[in-house]
Amino acid sequence: MSDDLDHRTHAYRPDLADIRLRDRVAADRYSEGMPAEVIVPVADVRPKPDARCSLDTQALHGEAVSVFDISDGWAWVQLSADGYVGYVREEAIGQGAGPATHVVSVPRSFVYPGADLRFPHLKVLSMGSRVRVTGEAETRATPYALLEDGSAVIAAHLRPLGEVSAEDAVSVAARFLDTPYLWGGRSGFGIDCSGLVQLALAMTGKSAPRDSDQQAAGLGRAIDPGSDGLQRGDLVFWKGHVGFLEDPDTLLHASGGTMYVTREPLQAAIDRIAKLYGLPTIYRRP
Description:
25 strands, SH3 type barrels
């Protein structure tokens, strides 16, 4: 039995493991996991059931998870979209009434108690959040999508699931300019470098691993800047960091230097980052 599987994407502990790992890891018992979904705007995912732990990633409203254990107010889950494993607060997950129909396609959008933007909003959802639209309404010429609980979202802020955005991933990422940097963040309220890459690609119908080392290992294909050249949409990786190229000379990334999503000349970024983390380790084309 192995104990060297990546804990980020394999659900196993000494007392409990995903049943799909029965032949690969030893555990006291195995479980198929219970299907659930995120019912809060953003659920923080941590490596331990401890609010003092730093974030590993985040799950967005309406995203599906498998729940392997609930104890002391924490749920041990695996995210369906990218397989990430971790602990979320128990109140962040629940049972949905049916499959989501639409995804939020703008960086942030308000949810109102009814079809009127003058109502006090109930919550704010990030791009990538999933909702179930059950009807439509119009107030003062503004169309709204009605959700299953009677609340409403601006209809233009949603698109049907499965409908790929016409924008390329770089255009999506650029909509997050000036969004605060947040380690482990994956939403329009705060985002890190690999979260920006993952979310932007997801909105164009492409899946990507969560962390920068996972993306560097297998997202798209490796390229040689000398022989292949660089182009818009290419990814530049450093140890622990990644960013999009807007063009061969401009980097767009969630920067721990500025602490927000920023653009800067690629060579200036290379020179600045080299002082702390060295030169780029690989370039990839998704």
